[in-house]
Amino acid sequence: MRIRPVGAHALLLDCDDPDQVQAWRAELWRRRDAGELSAVEIVPAAATVLLDGVPDPQAAAARIVGWTPRSGTDPAATAEVEVPTVYDGDDLPAVAGHWGVDVPAVVDRLRRTEFRVAFCGFAPGFAYLTGLPAELAVPRLATPRTRVPAGSVALAGPYAGIYPSASPGGWLLVGRTDLVLFDVHADPPARLAPGTRVRLVTP
Amino acid sequence: MIEVVRAGALTTVQDQGRPGYAHLGVPRSGALDPAALRLANRLVGNPETAAGLEITLTGCDLRFPRSVTVALTGAEVDVRIERPPVAHANTIDPPIDPPIDPAPPSGGRPVEHRPGDVGRPLSLPAGAVLRIGPASAGLRNWLAVSGGIAVEPVLGSRATDTLAGLGPPPLRDGDRLPLGVPVGHPAPVDLTVTPPVPAELRLALRLGPRHDWFGDTALDLMLHTPYAISPLSNRVGARLVGAALPRAVASELPSEGLVLGAVQVPPDGQPLIFLADHPTTGGYPVIGVVDDVTPLAQARPGTTVTFHGPQR
Are strands A159-162 and A152-156 parallel, antiparallel or unpaired? Predict the structure, then answer.
């Protein structure tokens, strides 16, 4: 892990792999809760954790390099969300083609996979789910759809994701869910926060 | 309540934004110049966190059924207060004083023309119409109204997020906005100093976190050649047009968290400075971060922008 300065009030932890991202995100959340770290935002991403709104980034960086992320202490990971999924996406045959299996095998694999929210982005409540092995990564559509309906369950690269609201999108559609993923009146507003374990179950 | 007579090109409800939700993909949003909105709030006696309006270039016209105090900050604009007609005023006796405006427009209302009323509290009688004209210099104004705009908060903020679609939609003609109960008195201020809109912006830039994705040529261009504000700029970001910044690393950057003022360089090499409605993560390398983006809130398309290191 390497710490990079970002402007006058932020730091970027450049991690070696997604597991290290999870570990540092959990550690930094824990340290902030304990009052040992001051940051307005702690934002995990694919290979980094951003700390924004840090009063004294140089002092914070000096402290962080002395910390070691504890394993198995991620409070977010205790939550598991079952997402009832109807597997009828238009791109199931394309995914089957990329994986070299038939469509029922794709569905079976997705149903059995224990996913975890690596990070959120793109839109409020949009979670990037990891859990599929790297060799099952799929490319995005060459031409994105102009409109992907809310609740669409989709794959791109090594990730699975669920569109919380309708938007343009280039991910491969494998199914859909009625589960509300982002509700501004809920606390927290996002059903799938970083660290949450997720299963895409058949209703 | 505010009745929106003319919404203008883009008028949105804004406050100090909704920080603390970036890890869930929720942008910060809020006024593009938060200090200017805080000043407007102080002038009318509101808490600094109250919601007001952010008005873009073309102004807007608002009617206030009840008496209020308002204050406008930001760009240079012409402000007119149209007072309601006094019942039967002209049918009993001829007016003693000559009308302020000798040729009132349709409706026969006496119109008070008040130029240059940016930066001080204005007391409006019940039924008054506030006509905010187009900006003559700069781009945006912030309007505070005593009591604050009391639309339903979303995740602790009433701000319109034009990227994520959170908060109330941009104002349309005929909209009605609720107002809160005033809690303070207007500031005893006749005039505040509004910094003039500079013809050219010089922005302090700190390199990183991904300046190492660019060669010395790009860093030299960034700090020594002028850029121009593109007409495609909006609340999400100020797009720049100028020398394309060549990359030294060709591979694809995995998405990573973004901060306000991050200067992202997409494949076409034309930098983009992220403003209040910026996405929480992005997949193009950030060459540097601008210390203070608030001057960009007034930068019209074509405005020249240069960058310098933070040491100056």
Answer: antiparallel
